[in-house]
Design brief:
- The protein has 2 domains: 109 residues, Nucleotidyltransferase, domain 5 (2-Layer Sandwich), CATH 3.30.420.40; 155 residues, Nucleotidyltransferase, domain 5, CATH 3.30.420.40.
- It is α/β, with parallel strands linked by helices.
- The chain has 10 helices and 15 strands.
- The strands form 4 sheets. A 5-stranded mixed β-sheet has the order 3-2-1-4-8, sandwiched between helices. Strands 11-10-9-14-15 form a 5-stranded mixed β-sheet.
Length: 274
């Protein structure tokens, strides 16, 4: 039995995993924004105690930031002000006396998606999370590729249109226009021309990001996760038009498979497999 933990800005998810199935899970609110480091750690440990069993042999944790993967140190976690340098692996191993692995949340998502797909079917799988931010994780030859500093795939931070890709390829794109993706999707379903145009623009921006993914990693499969992935039908066509315009190797795009796995369980599974 494995325990996977996905720490987000609004929710922390916990899942007991057997094989590739989550047999029990809990979701709780994330840390208060003004919580001290010790308060966040006490809260996290308490919630782990609520779900862990003697059968759990290891813990995997996904966090929204860069990580010293070897030593399990978290640096400058997004939306957790007190997490500047946290030796999370040592803290949790000292408390629970079992191995702990820590990694970036997008990497966990990619690892979980590849496990669901069967990574042996593709030499390279790229997971792209479209949520509060934009995350990219890479699975190459069945193994997670993190880079030397766990920064491989941080394409959302690449400058783009005077901001960065994350500003145009996540919930931020809709929120900056006074909507959330769910509201925009409902309007598009009803034929609202402004909502349709909004998703077409979103897809165009995302196609630009995917052209960088193709140039950088040449995946056989790209998997979308995160809440915005639920609206894929509305931006699929504009995404592919932009991608074919920006990436000239049509043979690779003809072979490329794009899948959607928006379930939060995917990241939990990946965290457990670290």
């Amino acid at each position: 039995m494995l325990l996977g933990i996905d720490i987000g800005g609004t929710t922390i998810s916990f899942g007991l995993v057997q094989g590739t199935e989550i047999v029990r899970q809990n979701r709780v609110p994330s840390f208060p924004k003004d919580a001290s480091l010790q308060e966040t750690l006490d809260y996290l440990i308490g919630k782990i105690e609520d779900i862990i069993t003697p059968e759990v042999s290891s813990i995997g944790v996904g966090v929204p930031t860069l990580v010293d993967v070897k030593n399990g140190i978290v640096f400058d976690a997004a939306n957790i002000k007190s997490w500047k340098r946290v030796p999370l692996k040592d803290i949790l191993e000292d408390r629970f006396k079992i191995p702990v692995n820590v990694n970036n949340d997008a990497n966990c998502y990619a690892l979980g998606a590849a496990a669901k797909l069967g990574a042996h079917d593709y030499e390279v799988v790229v997971g792209v999370t479209l949520g509060t931010g934009t995350g990219v994780g890479i699975i190459a030859n069945g193994k997670l590729f993190c880079g030397d500093n766990c920064g491989a795939g941080e394409i959302g931070s690449v400058p783009y249109n005077g901001k960065d890709f994350e500003s145009f390829c996540s919930k931020k794109f809709f929120e900056d226009r006074g909507l959330n993706p769910r509201e925009a999707s409902k309007a598009a379903d009803e034929g609202d021309p402004d909502a349709v145009a909004l998703f077409n623009e979103f897809g165009t921006h995302l196609g630009e990001l995917l052209s960088l993914v193709m140039y950088s990693y040449d995946p056989g499969c790209i998997v979308f996760g995160g809440g915005v992935a639920n609206t894929f039908k509305h931006f699929k066509n504009s995404l592919m038009l932009a991608l074919r315009k920006r990436y000239p190797y049509s043979h690779a795009l003809d072979r490329l498979e794009i899948k959607v796995m928006p379930s939060e369980d995917v990241a939990l599974l990946g965290a457990s497999l670290l």
